[in-house]
Amino acid sequence: MATQAETTAISPFDRIGGIAALRRITDRFYDLMDDDPAYAALRAMHAADLAPMRASLPSFLAGWSGGPRDWWEANPGKCMMSMHAPLAIDRETARQWAEAMRRAIADAAPADLDIAAALADTLSQMALGMAKG
Ligand code: HEM
Fold first, then answer.
1. pTM flag (> 0.70)
2. Which of 11, 21, 68, 103 is the most buried (most CB within 10 A)?
3. Which of 29, 34, 80 to mutate to test the pocket of ligand 1 (most atoms within 8 A of CB)?
4. How far is the CA of 2 from the centre of ligand 1 (A)?
């Protein structure tokens, strides 16, 4: 039988489905950003080539959620909030980010609905917290 320590050691990273699930979510997120005109303002803020972001975001989220820390080791001391501070993020672009991410998580259909909802809520709060004004 699992001990208390073993049962509580399951990280959000594991619960969401590991790097494969994070890649499904972030690929869907950038597909939505690319294809859905509802996210045109958000898309316009990003570079033409989204390939670096398709590599970077799942790697960031992996370490952030308790999984492999490759992105964090490659970017020592880099703070996501400070990194975004110089960008012209207003409430509308932050709302677009949060909505596209919420849809991407739902479309990727993680098995654990509780952790999926927690992920969507937390990332939405982070995005909205990056908006000026
Ligand atoms: C609030 C709305 C947001 C906007 C408008 C936004 C926009 C951007 C832009 C323009 C870049 C530079 C990449 C490029 O030019 O293609 C970037 C990088 C990045 N963003 Fe955001 N972002 C937002 C929210 C977030 C949130 C909430 C997270 C994390 C949970 C995040 C994670 C990242 C990561 C990991 C990078 C790449 C950093 C690196 O690896 O150097 N972004 N973002």
1. yes
2. 21
3. 80
4. 39
Which amino acid would we find at residue 8?
A: T
Whether 5 is covered by a domain: the verdict is no
Whether 93 lines ligand 1, by a CB cut-off of 6 Å, is yes
**Residue nearest atom 35 in ligand 1 by C-alpha distance:** 57
Closest ligand 1 atom to the C-alpha of 87? 10
Residue whose CA is closest, atom 34 of ligand 1?
Answer: 57
- For residue 50, what is the domain's CATH number? 1.10.490.10
Kindly report, residue by residue over 53-101, the tens digit of the pLDDT.
999 999 999 999 999 999 999 999 999 999 999 999 999 999 999 999 9
List the domain range (segments joined by +) for residue 72: 15-129
Q: What is the 3-state secondary structure of 23-72?
A: HHHHHHHHHHHHHCHHHHHHHHHCCCCCHHHHHHHHHHHHHHCCCCCHHH
What confidence score (pLDDT) does residue 20 get? 97
